[in-house]
Specification:
7 strands, 2 domains, binds NADP nicotinamide-adenine-dinucleotide phosphate
């Protein structure tokens, strides 16, 4: 099927690793000109060079989205790369850098930092790109959420509430852009195999004296309630983002797609 994405221009934030890299790769393979992004310049250049060598049309925009200046620098570079942005994927983000998980161990400064790099990072880029998308009467804004945003746990309150705020922002913006040709959706991943998850599973296994990460992965997987009994891959998320990016998804607006191996199959 032709997803009609050829010639579109995308910015995928946080695409120098993990899920974002998988999304950028798939969009580029569909003929999208992709602006890659990350804070770590070395890893960003490595991904850019790898993708360019494989014949993909890519550029790089480096910067910290936690500040107005950093986000403006990223947006300027993204616009300069291909003359505009039609698809914005707000994937950059994550939990506290301090890795504090206990509710009361998360300092208020960390709450702020987590909101800056998830909620405000997305809002900054939306402010920058949505007006032009509206003018051209076509655009896609896709936000990457987390199960922590919809299934609160007793830990990492900064992260769960930030992702919940991004979900609310997604729905609210989809209503504000009514009839504009710009759709706004969220994709919510379950447990996805990225460097961060490998690090988590390695620590989890080490604490229990387990060899490698397989036993830890099996243990953690059982706790998720998943009915698809494997850990997700970045491609699992990339397929959904690529579909939502396509003109074929014109009728899809204000949804939150849970891609979590069935971990949230519930009726409320
Ligand atoms: N992996 C999972 O199981 C999972 C599950 C649910 C949701 N998610 C969400 O999926 C997204 C991607 O996560 P991932 O697992 O692929 O993690 P990852 O490999 O650690 O990637 C995170 C990306 O975000 C960038 N980033 C972080 N803070 C930033 C900031 N202040 N400014 C600019 N860029 C920043 C990082 O850039 P640098 O490395 O260069 O700093 C990196 O490219 C995140 O929003 C995460 O919350 C992941």
């Amino acid at each position: 099927m032709d997803l009609q994405l050829k010639g579109k221009r995308a910015l995928v934030t946080g695409s120098n690793s993990g899920i974002g890299k998988g999304i950028a790769k798939m969009l580029a393979d569909e003929g999208v000109s992709v602006v890659l992004h990350g804070r770590n310049a070395e890893r960003l250049e490595a991904v850019r060079a790898e993708f360019a060598a494989a014949g993909r049309t890519v550029a790089a925009a480096q910067g910290d989205l936690s500040t107005d200046e950093g986000a403006a620098k990223v947006a300027d570079a993204a616009l300069a790369a291909f003359g505009g942005i039609d698809i914005l994927v707000n994937n950059a983000g994550g939990g506290s850098e301090e890795k504090a998980v206990n509710w009361f161990d998360v300092a208020l400064t960390e709450w702020l930092a987590t909101y800056e790099k998830n909620v405000l990072a997305a809002a900054r880029l939306i402010h920058r790109f949505a007006p032009t998308m509206k003018e051209q009467q076509w655009g896609r804004i896709i936000q990457i959420g987390s199960m922590a945003g919809t299934i609160p746990t007793s830990a990492q309150p900064d992260y769960g509430t930030a992702k919940a705020a991004m979900l609310n922002m997604t729905m609210s913006l989809s209503k504000n852009l009514k009839g504009s040709g710009v759709t706004v959706n969220m994709v919510t991943p379950g447990m996805i195999m990225t460097e961060g998850l490998v690090e988590f599973l390695t620590n989890f296994a080490a604490k229990r004296g387990w060899e490698g990460i397989d036993q830890a992965a099996e243990y953690v997987l059982k706790g998720t309630g998943q009915t698809v009994l494997r850990i997700g891959q970045p491609e699992d998320i990339a397929f959904a983002v690529t579909y939502l990016s396509s003109p074929r998804a014109d009728f899809v607006n204000g949804v939150n797609m849970h891609l979590d191996g069935g971990g949230t199959a519930n009726i409320y």
